[in-house]
C-alpha cells in the first residue's frame, strides 16, 4: 500500500518552465486535492474513466485510502500524502481544489487549522500563504486551470430564499462555523484576485483560469460514517437500530444532492467558459423531520426519532437557485433523494456490517 504513496519535498527551491494551457481533451494531467475524501474520490474515478491522469494530494484528515484503493496500480493514478498548507511543486493542466474538512464536527475540531487550510502564515516565508493560496500559486506557475469547491455556507443563515449567486450572504464572522464559512469566503476572494491577475503575469491572456463552485449539501457512498453530517448520521443510526437524532425542532431545511450529480457539475464547470460562482445543488428542499421520514421509509419504518438541542448558528433554511448553472453549464441534478439514498444505504450497510466490499460506485 505504502508503495503507492510518493512523498514530495514540501518546500519549493526553484521555478520551472510554464506548461501551455492543456487544450487537447485526452490525457490531461489533473490534480485533485482532497481526492481521498468523499466527493474527491468520486471525481477521481470519473476523470480516470475519461482517460486523464490524476494526482491526488491528501493529508488523510477525513479522507481514506480505501476510497481510492481500486485505483492503486493504475499507471494514470498517483496518491501523495501532503498537507496543502505546505507548498508543492507539480506540473499539471488542471487543479480541482477540494482539500478541506467539510463536516461541521470535523471543521470545528480544529478551527484554526480549518481557516489555515485557506489562508495562513507560512512557516517558511512568514507571508500569507497556504492551502488555496498554494494551489493558486501552483496554477499560476504552470498555467493550469483552477477550480475551487466553495460552499452554500458562504450564504450563512440566508435572508434570501432560495439563494442566488448574486446574494452576498448573512454570515456571523465570530461564530463557531466562521472558520469554515469565512475561510471559504476568503478562498473565493483569493481565487478572484488571482483571476483578475493582481500584479501577476500568467497564462496566455494574462489571466489565471479560475472556476468557483458553491456546493450544497451532498450525500452518497463513501461518506465518512461517523462524520456528524445529517444524512450520514441518520443512515448509520437507522442501520444500527439507534434513534435518529434530530437537532432543534427539525423544521430547518436543507437541499440534498447526490454525489454523481455534483461530480458532473464540477466537470462541466471546469471544462466550460464561465468563472462562476455557480450554485451546484439539488433544489429539492426537505426539513430534517422530512429527511428522517425518508430514511425511515428507506431503511426501517420503526426507527425512532430523538430530539437533541441544536448546534450554534445553525442556518434555518437552504435551497439553491440553479438557473445560472442550467443556462450556462447545461447542468441540473437528475437523482432525487428517494433514488439516491438507497445507493448510499447499500454502501453504509456493507461498511458497517462488513459485508462484501464494492468500491466501484
Ligand atoms: P471530505 O472530508 O470527505 O473530503 C475532504 C478531503 O480533504 C479529505 O480527504 C481530507 O483528508 C482532505 N484534506 C483536508 N484538509 C487537508 C489539507 N490541509 N491538506 C490535504 N488534504 C486535506 O469532504 P467532502 O464532502 O468530500 O468535501 C469536499 C469539498 O467539497 C470540500 O472542499 C468541502 O468544503 C466542499 N463541500 C462539500 C459539501 C458536501 O456536502 N459534501 C458541501 C459544500 C462544500
Ligand atoms: N506555490 C506552490 N507551488 C508552485 C508555485 C507556488 O505551492 O508550483 C506556492 C508558493 O509557495 C506560494 C504560493 O503558492 O506560497 C503563492 O505563490 P505566488 O507565486 O502567487 O506568490 P509568491 O510566491 O510570488 O508570493
Ligand atoms: N442535524 C440533525 N441531526 C444530526 C446532524 C445534523 O438534525 O444528527 C441537522 C443540523 O442541525 C442542520 C442539518 O441537520 O440543521 C444539516 O446539518 P449538516 O451538519 O449535515 O450540514 P450543514 O449544517 O453544514 O448544512
TrEMBL record:
UniProt keyword terms in alphabetical order: Decarboxylase, Golgi apparatus, Lyase, Membrane, NAD, Transmembrane, Transmembrane helix
Enzyme Commission code: 4.1.1.35
Organism of this sequence: Dillenia turbinata
Protein name, per record: UDP-glucuronate decarboxylase
Topological relation to the membrane, as annotated: Single-pass type II membrane protein
Cofactor(s), by name: NAD(+)
Lineage per the UniProt record: Eukaryota, Viridiplantae, Streptophyta, Embryophyta, Tracheophyta
Family of the protein in this entry: Belongs to the NAD(P)-dependent epimerase/dehydratase family. UDP-glucuronic acid decarboxylase subfamily.
UniProt GO molecular function: NAD+ binding; UDP-glucuronate decarboxylase activity
Residues covered by the NAD(P)-binding domain: 32-342
Entry function: Catalyzes the NAD-dependent decarboxylation of UDP-glucuronic acid to UDP-xylose. Necessary for the biosynthesis of the core tetrasaccharide in glycosaminoglycan biosynthesis.
GO cellular component: Golgi cisterna membrane
Swiss-Prot/TrEMBL GO biological process terms: D-xylose metabolic process
Location of this chain's protein in the cell: Golgi apparatus, Golgi stack membrane
Pathway listed: Nucleotide-sugar biosynthesis; UDP-alpha-D-xylose biosynthesis; UDP-alpha-D-xylose from UDP-alpha-D-glucuronate: step 1/1
Enzyme class: lyase
Amino acid at each position: 500500500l505504502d508503495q503507492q504513496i510518493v512523498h514530495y519535498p514540501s518546500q519549493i527551491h526553484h521555478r520551472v518552465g510554464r506548461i501551455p494551457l492543456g487544450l487537447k481533451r485526452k490525457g490531461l494531467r489533473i490534480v485533485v486535492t482532497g481526492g481521498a475524501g468523499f466527493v474527491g474520490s468520486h471525481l477521481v474515478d470519473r476523470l480516470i474513466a475519461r482517460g486523464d491522469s490524476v494526482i491526488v494530494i491528501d493529508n488523510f484528515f477525513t479522507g481514506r485510502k480505501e476510497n481510492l484503493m481500486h485505483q492503486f496500480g493504475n499507471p494514470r493514478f498517483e496518491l501523495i500524502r501532503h498537507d496543502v498548507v505546505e507548498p508543492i511543486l507539480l506540473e499539471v493542466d488542471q487543479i480541482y481544489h477540494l482539500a478541506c474538512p467539510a463536516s461541521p464536527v470535523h471543521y470545528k475540531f480544529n478551527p484554526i487549522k480549518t481557516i489555515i487550510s485557506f489562508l495562513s502564515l507560512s512557516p517558511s516565508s512568514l507571508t500569507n500563504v497556504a492551502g488555496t493560496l498554494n494551489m493558486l500559486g501552483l496554477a499560476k506557475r504552470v498555467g493550469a486551470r483552477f477550480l475551487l469547491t466553495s460552499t452554500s455556507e458562504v450564504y450563512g443563515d440566508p435572508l434570501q430564499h432560495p439563494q442566488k449567486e448574486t446574494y452576498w450572504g448573512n454570515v456571523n464572522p465570530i461564530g463557531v462555523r466562521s472558520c469554515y464559512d469565512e475561510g471559504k469566503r476568503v478562498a473565493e476572494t483569493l481565487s478572484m484576485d488571482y483571476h483578475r491577475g493582481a500584479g501577476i503575469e500568467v497564462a496566455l491572456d494574462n489571466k489565471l483560469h479560475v472556476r468557483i463552485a458553491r456546493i450544497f449539501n451532498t450525500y452518497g457512498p463513501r461518506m465518512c460514517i461517523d462524520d456528524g453530517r445529517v444524512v450520514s448520521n441518520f443512515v448509520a443510526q437507522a442501520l444500527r437500530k439507534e434513534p435518529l437524532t434530530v437537532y432543534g425542532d427539525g423544521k430547518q431545511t436543507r437541499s440534498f444532492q447526490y454525489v454523481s450529480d455534483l461530480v458532473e457539475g464540477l466537470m462541466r464547470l471546469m471544462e466550460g467558459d464561465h468563472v462562476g460562482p455557480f450554485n451546484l445543488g439539488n433544489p429539492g428542499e426537505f426539513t430534517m423531520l422530512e429527511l428522517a421520514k425518508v430514511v425511515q421509509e428507506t431503511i426501517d419504518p420503526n426507527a425512532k426519532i430523538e430530539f437533541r438541542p441544536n448546534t450554534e448558528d445553525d442556518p434555518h433554511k437552504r435551497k439553491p437557485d440553479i438557473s445560472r448553472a442550467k443556462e450556462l453549464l447545461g447542468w441540473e441534478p437528475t437523482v432525487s433523494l428517494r433514488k439516491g439514498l438507497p445507493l448510499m444505504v447499500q454502501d453504509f450497510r456493507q461498511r458497517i456490517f462488513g459485508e462484501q466490499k464494492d468500491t466501484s460506485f
